[in-house]
Amino acid sequence: MVRSALVASQLIAAAAAVRPFVNEPDTGLQDFLFSTNYTEGTLPPLRDMRGLPDFDYAARQVLDGQMYSFYRTAAAGEWSYRNNLEIWEKVKFRPHQLAGHEGLNETMGVSILGYNFSAPFFISPATRAAYGDPERAEINFVDAAAEADILYVSALYASKSIEEIGEAKRAHNNTLNGPQVTFQQIYSNANLSVTWDAIARAEAQNAKAIVWTIDAPGSSTRHRAARYDTTNANSVTSYLTWDLYEEMKNHTTLPIILKGITTVEDALTAVERGVPAIWLSNHGARQVDHSPSPLEIAYEIYRNAPQVFSQVEVLADSGVRYGSDVLKLLALGVKAVGLGRPFMYSNVYGLEGPQKVIQILKSEILQDAAQIGITDLSNIDPKRLNMRALESTVYLADDHDTIMQAVRLHRTAADGTKYSVSNPAPPAALVFEHKVPLPQLTAPGQVLVLVHASTVTRDELTWPESYATDFPILGHDLAGVVVATYDGTSGFKPGDEVYGMVGQEAGCSWAQYVVAEDRELALKPKGLSWTESAAVAMNGLTAWQALFEKAKFPEPDFSAVDKNCVMQQRTLLVTGAAGMVGTWIVQLARLAGIPVTAATSSNARNAAFLKSLGAYKTIEYAELGASSTKYDAIIDTAGGEPQARCWDVVADDGILISVDSGSFGIADNKPLGKEHVEALFFIVQISGAQMARLTPALEAGLVETFVSEVYPLAEARTAYERASGRLEKRGKVVLSIEA
C-alpha cells in the first residue's frame, strides 16, 4: 500500500510537471490567505486580489457548485480551456532597453467603430451575472465601464434585460463619447422573429453595434456543466450562414460585428462582404474542444493574410488574464481585447470587483509595455515578439506569407528576342503572376504597403528604368495601407492609409505589396477613393514642381485661396492643358492666382472643360503663331509641334519648361533670338512632403483628380493598351488591386 501510494504520488507529480495548473498558476494567494485570519469558504478581502486569476479563487469560495460551474465550464475534456491559458507562454517578448516610455499612458486609448475608449480592452458578453451579485448583476459592469471609459458588450441572455441595461447606462452622460456607448450581443434564434425583436430592442436602447455570436450553432458538449446540471444560455439557434448575415443587415442600421471568427478563410470572407469588425474567439473554449485560442487565430491571420488587420477592425477574447496577454494580441494587429470570466468572477464583490479588475489590467498593460520598451500602445511592432513556437500550432498556407500577385515584364520573348530601351517590349510581355516573392523591409524608414490601387502610364515600356532588372514590376503611383514597418522606425504605422509614388528600386506598384520609403508617401486624403488617390502622385507632383520649383511661382495658401486669391502679374501658358498633367497645372495655377492660358488641339472639345478648371482663357495650337501675347512662363506637356510653336510666344527673358519625354535636349536647341530664354526639361521627383501639401486641396475639393477607366490587376496588359490609345473619358487608367 505504501509503495502504491508512492507511485501514485510520483505520477501525480509528473502530471503536474507537464500541466502545472488546471485553472490558473499559483502566485501565492492561498498561502498568504491562510497565513492570516482567513476562513476557507468565505470571500477573501478585495485588497488581496492582486491579479485577475485571484478572482477565480475568490468566486469559487462563495458560489455554489452549479453557479461556479456555469462560469467555469468548457467543452468536453476542456483541452481548449487549458490551451487558452497556456498558449501565451509560447510567445516570448523581445524587450528593447533604453527605449524610454514617456507619454506611454497617453497612447492607451483606442477607437472602436469610431467610438473612443480609455483602454484597449473591454467587458465581453457573459450571462447570469446575478450569480455573483443577485441584486445588481450586470449593472455593475455598466457602471464600472462608464466610470473607466471602457466598452461594455452586454449579453443577450444577461440577468438584466436589454431595457434594464439601457436604463442603467442613461445615468452616464459624461464619458469620452458623451452618453455611454455599449454594444449588444445577440444569438440568432431558430424563430428569426425573436432575433429581429432583440435587435429592435437593442436599437431602442441606443446600443451602437450588434455583436452576432456566430460560433454557437447549437448546444455544445460540456461534461462539467452536465455534471452540475447547468444549461446552455443559447440552446435554440438558427442555421448560421453568410446569407443570414446579409438578411440581418436588412433588419438594422447598426454595424454588425461577427464574434467567433477562428480561421483566416472566414476573416477574408468577412472582409470581402464588408463586415465592419470581426471578433476572434473560441467562445472561451465553451463550444468545441480543441478549437484554437485567440492568439493562434490572430497569428494565423498575421502569417497568411496580414492585410486583414488594416481592412477591418479586429477584436479578440478568450483566455486573457494578464496585461502581457493584451500586449501580444495588440502587437499582432488586434485593436482591442475582451475579457469575460474575470469580470464575472469579480462580480462577487459587487461594483468594486469589476472596478478592481479594470484598475489591475490597466496597470499591468502600462507596466509590462514599459518593461518591453514599447513607446506607443497603438503601434506595437510585431518584432517585439518571438512567435516561432506558434508555427507548429497554426495553419500556414504554403508560401502564403512569402508570395504575392504582381504583373511583371518578361524581357525575353518566347522566340528568344530580348527587349530593351532600344527594342521596347510589347504589352504582351506584361504577365500576371500568382507567386512573386513578397518584397522585404531592409532599412530604417521603410514600410510595407498593401496596395489597393495603382495607375498605368502610357509609354512606360519605353522607359530605361523598366529594363533595370530581369523581371521588373512596373507602376509608380499607389494608394494603399501600411501593414508593417522596419523595426518601428517609420513615421507611419500599420493601418495608416497612404498614397504616393515609389521608385523602380522599390519593386514598383503593379503588385499586392510594395516596399516604400517614408519620403515617398503621405497620408491619403480623406474622402477620396483608392482609385482617385492613386491617380494623384505622378501628375500632381509634376504640376507642382513645374509651377512652384522650376517656374518659381509662389505656392498657394489653400486655407485662404477661396477668400482672397490675388492675381499674379506673371503670365503662364500650358500646352496639353486638357491632358493628365495639364489639368493639374491649370487647377494649381488657378489656386495660386496665376492667369493661365490653356493651349489645346481643339477649343470645341476642350475649352469649356478647361475654363471649368480655372483657365483664364484657351487657345488652339494653330493660333499660337499668330498671337501677339508673350508669356513669362510656358509649361509644355505636349512636345512636338505644339512645343515648337511655344518659342514664338515665350518672352525673351521668360522660361520654357517641358515634361515631354522627347524633349530632353530642349535647352540645346534654342531658336535664334531666344538665347536668353531659360529652357529646361525635367523628370518628376518623388516627394511625400509635396504630396502632403496637395492633400488639403484634395480634401477641400479645391482640385479634382480624374479617373478614366479601372481594371483589375490581372488585366494590366489590357489597361496598358487602353492607356496608350485615345480614351473616351478624361483621366488616368487605374489598376484596382485586391488582396
TrEMBL record:
Transmembrane portions of the chain: none
> What does UniProt give as the signal peptide span?
1-17
Under the heading InterPro entries, the entry gives: ADH-like_N (IPR013154), Aldolase_TIM (IPR013785), ER (IPR020843), FMN-dep_DH (IPR000262), FMN_HAD (IPR037396), FMN_hydac_DH_AS (IPR008259), GroES-like_sf (IPR011032), NAD(P)-bd_dom_sf (IPR036291)
Pfam families associated with the record: ADH_N, ADH_zinc_N_2, FMN_dh
Q: Residue limits of the FMN hydroxy acid dehydrogenase domain?
A: 44-390
The protein's matches in PROSITE patterns, at most eight in alphabetical order, are given as: FMN_HYDROXY_ACID_DH_1, FMN_HYDROXY_ACID_DH_2
Q: GO molecular function: any one?
A: oxidoreductase activity
* PANTHER family found in the cross-reference section: FMN HYDROXY ACID DEHYDROGENASE DOMAIN-CONTAINING PROTEIN, S -2-HYDROXY-ACID OXIDASE-RELATED
This protein's name: FMN hydroxy acid dehydrogenase domain-containing protein
Whose protein is this, by species? Answer: Stachybotrys chlorohalonatus (strain IBT 40285)
